[in-house]
């Protein structure tokens, strides 16, 4: 599966260079020189990695890193901070904000390819976590004691796309009972509504579920994901 990467740097030349190197590693890069526009894109789309320059007009790389870590879709996405400064204070602040890796300017192709190889494992895990599998499972949803029923259209380790008896407002935190197998005891999960679509369809993202729920989801989904990618 082709990894989709977001690159944000107010220098178009740097964006072009990083895009070229990522392309040579068979990764698809989306580039922005405007960090405000990039921040909006990060709220709407899932990426397998994010490259952020430190020094940009607001939001700068550190501020944008904090926003990503507080967001929904890309909260666990590996973040590569691009900096021309070997400053321990900046590095410490970047780690504190949630950075995963560093790429130093001037950018060297060979060093960047080595970084990509190091980051490849986390990127693949992130891609797998959000890879959708088309599967129909019965689901019931509860919000403020209101009960809704529906069927999943696709399912992932990060959430699901479901068609319900009606759509719920974006941002709603709901209790989900998901029947992974016909007749099996439903799996109880907590999810947030992150997007709406036509015909009462909703995109849900899992929220703070425990290890047992995550294990059961993985046991059900990973064979389907691996069969799809192999």
Give a description of the structure.
This protein is α/β, with parallel strands linked by helices and 230 residues long. It has six helices and eleven strands. It has helices spanning 12-24, 35-44, 61-69, 88-97, 109-130, 211-229; strands at 3-8, 27-32, 49-53, 79-83, 101-104, 138-143, 146-155, 159-164, 173-179, 187-197, 201-206. Strand 10 and strand 11 form a beta hairpin. The model has no long low-confidence stretch (mean pLDDT 88).
Quickly describe the structure.
With about 230 residues, the protein is α/β, with parallel strands linked by helices. It contains 6 helices and 11 strands. α3 (about 60-70) links the parallel β3 (about 50-55) and β4 (about 80-85).
Q: Report the count of strand segments.
A: 11
Shape descriptor reads elongated
What class, by secondary structure content? alpha/beta
The N- and C-terminal alpha carbons lie at a distance of 10 Å
Specify Rg, calculated over alpha carbons: 19 Å
Arithmetic mean of pLDDT: 88
Strand order of the largest sheet: 6-7-8-11-10-9
Strand composition percent: 25-35%
Q: Unreliable segments (pLDDT under 50, ≥5 consecutive)?
A: none
Q: Helix segment count?
A: 6
């Amino acid at each position: 599966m082709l990894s989709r990467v977001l690159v944000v740097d107010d220098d178009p030349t740097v964006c072009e260079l990083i895009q070229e190197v990522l392309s040579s590693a068979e990764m698809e890069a989306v580039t922005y020189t405007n960090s405000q526009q990039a921040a909006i894109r990060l709220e709407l789309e899932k990426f397998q990695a994010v490259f952020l320059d430190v020094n940009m007009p607001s939001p700068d790389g550190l501020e944008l890193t904090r926003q990503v870590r507080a967001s929904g879709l890309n909260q666990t996405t590996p973040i590569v901070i691009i900096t021309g400064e070997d400053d321990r204070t900046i590095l410490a602040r970047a780690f504190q904000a949630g950075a995963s890796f560093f790429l130093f300017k001037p950018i060297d192709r060979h060093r960047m390819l080595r970084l990509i190889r190091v980051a490849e494992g986390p990127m693949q895990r992130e891609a797998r976590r959000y890879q959708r599998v088309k599967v129909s499972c019965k689901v019931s949803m509860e919000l403020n004691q209101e009960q809704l029923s529906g069927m999943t259209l696709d399912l992932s380790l990060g959430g699901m796309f479901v068609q319900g008896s009606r759509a719920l407002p974006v941002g709603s935190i709901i209790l989900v009972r998901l029947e992974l197998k016909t007749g099996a005891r439903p799996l109880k999960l907590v999810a947030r509504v992150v997007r709406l679509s036509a015909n009462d369809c909703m995109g849900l993202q899992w929220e703070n579920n425990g290890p047992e729920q995550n294990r059961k989801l993985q046991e059900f989904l990973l064979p389907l994901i691996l069969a799809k990618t192999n």
